[in-house]
Amino acid sequence: EPEVTQTPSHQVTQMGQEVILRCVPISNHLYFYWYRQILGQKVEFLVSFYNNEISEKSEIFDDQFSVERPDGSNFTLKIRSTKLEDSAMYFCASRTSGYSYNEQFFGPGTRLTVL
Amino acid sequence: AQRVTQPEKLLSVFKGAPVELKCNYSYSGSPELFWYVQYSRQRLQLLLRHISRESIKGFTADLNKGETSFHLKKPFAQEEDSAMYYCALQGGSEKLVFGKGTKLTVNP
């Protein structure tokens, strides 16, 4: 069964450094998402992406964040200058086209630790 | 504002006992409600959604608009049901709004 994959599984970085989190969505999916979960807190929506554009973003998704689909398979989240409070589990998700309430399929997550 | 509340952080039951995981939501429109489950060391996966009105692994959930609730129920819990359960709402946009989750432990 096709799955969303994410790399790396764990990323450790120094405050102020740039990080890129990578995701490979399910191949026939057209809608892509990033969520994050700070330890002990809720899973929070960051951004949705469709047709090479951001379709929706949260207040968390400020100018330090960007997303890109550089080729036909990868979907990346870049944090330009990481802060301590960016430490979290980051989940990528994707879904098929059509009905917006179709299931979002989640990746296993990347744990980002900012020191 | 869209909000999902799961009042129980932890829930522990014995095998064969009924289980109910509570979920209340706040949304001014007509939301779509979901239950996601995360088994140990696995990814978040959809368990069931209101619109499908189906029973998955013996679990059911009924949307009560009057009480703004979407509680998850199973009449006879199994040990393999032990997991983290997240209630989520989707209302008029792409984003899922999650509750904090309930960790269910089913004891033998």
Task: Write a structural description.
The complex is a heterodimer of chains A (115) and B (108). Chain A has 115 residues and is an all-beta fold. Chain A is 0% helix and 50% strand. Chain A has strands at residues 5-7, 10-13, 19-24, 31-37, 43-50, 53-57, 65-68, 75-79, 88-95, 105-106, 110-114. In chain A, strands 2, 4, 5, 6, 9, 10 and 11 form a seven-stranded mixed β-sheet that branches. In chain A, strands 1-3-8-7 form a four-stranded antiparallel β-sheet, with no helix packed on it. In chain A, a hairpin with a 6-residue loop joins strand 7 (65-68) and strand 8. Chain A is globular and about 40 Å long. In chain B, strand 5 and strand 6 (45-49) form a beta hairpin. Chain B has 108 residues and is an all-beta fold. The model of chain B has no long low-confidence stretch (mean pLDDT 93). In chain B, strands 2, 5, 6, 9, 10 and 11 form a six-stranded mixed β-sheet that branches. In chain B, strands 3-8-7 form a three-stranded antiparallel β-sheet, with no helix packed on it. At the A-B interface, strand 4, strand 5 and strand 10 of A face strand 6 and strand 10 of B.
Write the layout of secondary structure elements.
The complex is a heterodimer of chains A (115) and B (108).
Chain A: E1 5-7, E2 10-13, E3 19-24, E4 31-37, E5 43-50, E6 53-57, E7 65-68, E8 75-79, E9 88-95, E10 105-106, E11 110-114
Parallel strand pairs in A: 2-11
Antiparallel strand pairs in A: 1-3, 3-8, 4-5, 4-9, 5-6, 7-8, 9-10, 9-11
Chain B: E1 3-5, E2 10-14, E3 19-21, E4 24-26, E5 32-38, E6 45-49, E7 60-61, E8 72-74, E9 83-90, E10 97-98, E11 102-107
Parallel strand pairs in B: 2-11
Antiparallel strand pairs in B: 1-4, 3-8, 5-6, 5-9, 7-8, 9-10, 9-11
